[in-house]
Amino acid sequence: MSQPNLNIYGGQAVIEGVMFAGRKVHVTAVRRKDNEIAFLEVPKEEKAWVQKLKKIPFLRGLVGILESSAYGTRHLNFSAEMFAEDEEEETGSKPSEGQAKPVKEKEEPGLLGKMSMMLGVAVIGILSFIFGKLIFTLVPAFLEQVLLGGIFENRVLHNLIEGIIKIVLLVAYIYFISLTPMMKRLFQYHGAEHKVISAYEAGLELTVRNVQKFSTLHYRCGSSFIIFTVIVGVIVYSFVPYDNLWERLYQRILLLPVVIGISYEVLRWTNSLRDVPVLRYLGYPGLWLQLLTTKQPTDDQVEVSIASFNRMRELDAELLAPVPKAS
């Protein structure tokens, strides 16, 4: 059972590491080939209008997802760079230059260069999310309409079959990519991320032994969000009539922000009910998908996740500390 009055933290797995998002900073820790842990520490950029939007129900989900995509891509790029450097050094294609840890962001030539880099990575992350979501939304609708559109008239049943096609495609995709060694390790770090958050929420000291006691599954996971978008989509689309394939497809595009907004609220709701004996089962569809997207981590991987979480909380405490008044 989670402890009351705790901050809510989230994160994501990256290549050979974990990123955690705090209230004021995002921190990624990755395991290098020499067994050292390197860090990327990125303070959050507070924008007043974004913070206001994140307080509005049904709109905050879309804003939060886009913001997470922007930050997540930046940290994933960092982990990919660290992995590539290690691979080059191991093959001898690049002379060893040593490394300073923790690693912070590389210096930019100036403010304009820094802003361009940040904007570029953020845009790539957001566009990648939007493109992936569009493909995942439109392809099942197209397949269902082409295969079964002229067989019967029940729109609700058409939407239900569309949802089933989405789940089948999603599960098949995750299963096949999980067979690759790199994705298997990524899913192990995903499990390590969940274990650390669960141990923190249980009020335990974050040691490898304590953290490993917990499940790799967590109610507040992005995998659960994906499943809820399918379920919510079936319901929302059933209220909107269409006459042909193209009308059906562009309606899916227009309604996508609505589905995302509602799904985010459902995710928050099921997380708040996870300790209620009967209602906790409402979150089980998302947990079932996590059986594919998380794997049991090794102690070394849990150690990296703990290091990232502890560093994030340490920097958060520093950035949130009141500034002494000048005498």
Structural overview:
Helix 2 packs across helix 3. The termini are far apart. The protein is globular. Mean pLDDT is 84; it is low at 95-100 and 104-122. It has a four-stranded antiparallel sheet with strand order 1-2-3-4, with helices on both faces. It has one domain (10-320). The chain contains ten helices and four strands; from the N terminus they run E-E-E-E-H-H-H-H-H-H-H-H-H-H. The chain is α+β, with helices and mostly antiparallel strands and 327 residues long. It has helices at 48-53, 60-91, 111-148, 155-177, 181-201, 208-211, 222-237, 245-272, 284-293, 299-320, and strands at residues 10-14, 17-21, 25-31, 37-43. The relative contact order is 0.16.
Biggest sheet descriptor: 4 strands, antiparallel
Number of strands: 4
Helix and strand run: EEEEHHHHHHHHHH
Give Rg in angstroms: 21 Å
Strand content: 5-15%
Contiguous uncertain segments of 5+ residues: 95-100, 104-122
Q: Helical region count?
A: 10
Class by alpha and beta content: alpha+beta
> What is the straight-line distance between the termini?
46 Å
Descriptive key words:
four-stranded antiparallel beta sheet
In short:
The chain is 61% helix and 7% strand. By secondary structure, it is of the alpha+beta class.
